[in-house]
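ligand=4-nitrophenyl phosphate
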Amino acid sequence: MTRVLFLCLGNICRSPTAEAVLRRMAEEAGHDLAIDSCGTGDWHKGEPPDRRAIAAAARRGYDLTPLRARQLTPEDFTRFDLILAMDRSNLRGAEARRPDGAGARVELFLSLIDEKGPGAKSMDVPDPWYTGDFDGTLDLIETGCRALIRRLAQPAQ
Ligand code: 4NP
């Protein structure tokens, strides 16, 4: 089983949305994944996702209401195989907190949709907390999760 952790800043907009989207796509594709999400910040610890994120997700049939925000912990670097950061700032935040020797791979989420692969020109998922564009966020997250499902279907390299 692959263990995937989505990471954003507050864990109330982008990463909980990605958690719900990937959970549904994995179910539909028959992949046995462990999926969770968290934030680099702790301001919203214990809170449900932003109501605008809940509403946008609900319009596409995803239920974010059971999710509660939490902060990235040192243990996450051993509990998960893959930590997918929503933007480069989150990626740097995660790498700065990696305990020595902990094995999780940390990648920029949207590097998955770049055909040249990780390390090539990659994009951030803009933060809808600031942009207000929750539908555009969902579009990007659905595209990224589809790419992840395709990658998981390929033989391990
Ligand atoms: P997220 O959005 O990282 O996609 O969950 C944010 C939510 C809250 C804050 C920042 C980003 N905040 O500063 O409280």
